[in-house]
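>> received
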Amino acid sequence: MSTSATLSPSGIPGLDNVLQGGLRQGHLYFIEGPPGTGKTTFGLQFLLEGLRRGERCLLISLAERPEEVAVIAASHGWSIDGLEVRDLVNPHEVHSTALFDLSETALDDRVQAALAEIDSLRPQRLVLDTLAALRIYSDHPSIFRRHVEHFRSKAVELGTTLLVTDEASGSPELHPRSLAWGIIRMEQRVSDYGPSRRWLWLPKLRGQAYVGGYHDMRIETGGLRVFPRLEIGRSTAPPARNDLVSSGNASLDTLLGGGLERGTSVGLIGPPGCGKSTLASRFALAAVERGERVVFYAFDESLATLRKRALSQDLEIDSALASQRLKLRQINPGQAAPGELARELAEEVDRHQTQLIVIDSLNGYFQAMPNDPMLNLQVHDLLSYLSAHGALTLLTLAHPSPLNRQQGLPVDLSYLTDTVIVQRYFEAYGTIRYALSVMKKRYGDHERTIREYKIGPGGIDVGEPLTEFRGVLTGVPEYLGEHQPLL
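>> returned
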């Protein structure tokens, strides 16, 4: 009798979040994907989770021998003691007759042998690896479909959760996908540089809510790990506080209309070397001083460089790190998948109640999503998720300057963020100086002035509004008044 109302946890971190619980007992699932995408690892991980729960588990191997299965398991640090493994790699000796083709007889022989093993053990979890090894024996879609129906019927009869791996290659007629209760598709893409990117998605899942779309995936020692796509509508976060966050600098807070609102996102934009990271660090350390948790993601420079620069500006970064309220995280864009990064950021606010997040820089974050046409939407969803949890997110973004070759901004920062703070160079009295202004603030008022600032001990020192200059935004201002002292 089927127990289809019961869900079996997959044992794969993150996948049950996608499945909204697990896989239904008494049903057939196809695990599809090209060679090398992790189908066998998926099956083993599912079976070992069953063993951990005291269930009877059976692997029927049609592609690897038991000793090869043991090698795969050992590479992940797993023991398959207690797992029933049946080797049907070698065909049974059969003879051609006048009525049946040899391949047809071999297919029937293997299917009957597999069904006999299932009847004998009556497993609660069963993996058949792989359907492609049976397909080579049949050129008749109706006959092949009937054999797959035997496996499905047996799973329903015994209440067994049955996973069948398949490459899903060749003629579509030989892929009886309509028999499956659900299909999990695994894919990978090799880029010009760095590791391949892996993901999975569900083309089909009956009678069960699930998270649609692509979900990044990683194969590492210990098995598969899935990073579910963020769903903004499912957020159960408490309402964000509306109080203002201070930078710790009175002049800067005045420019910002008192500070930055919690639960918003802020873009710090400017050419390289104008102090975007320093400004972000000033907000981060002010939050630490208030007893808040801060995480700083560095994409463009090493943590040693970030710390050295902070110390040169008398920013108390070491004491913040010692308090464990500041976490520095260095990210290599060539090694990180966008879904993995988004899930890690989500866990910061879900699990650790992080109040301030710095992404330095957004340019580096984008390198983790090369050639992604949905870049704006992915980042927008991430920032919306963080905002819904009351976190203040600061993102630095370098725009074109004489120091880089960037032809244009990779995203629309005004669309993504609630506040935009612009930093720039300008020339005055024969020297290069720095100007700061708030170009946009979605919530609350702010100064419409342009202020000079300089970087020194304590980070950023913000001066008075540049009221007697015209054209500061162009970088070559015109002085209109009497001599005005600058910083």
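>> The first helix runs from residue 15 to 19.
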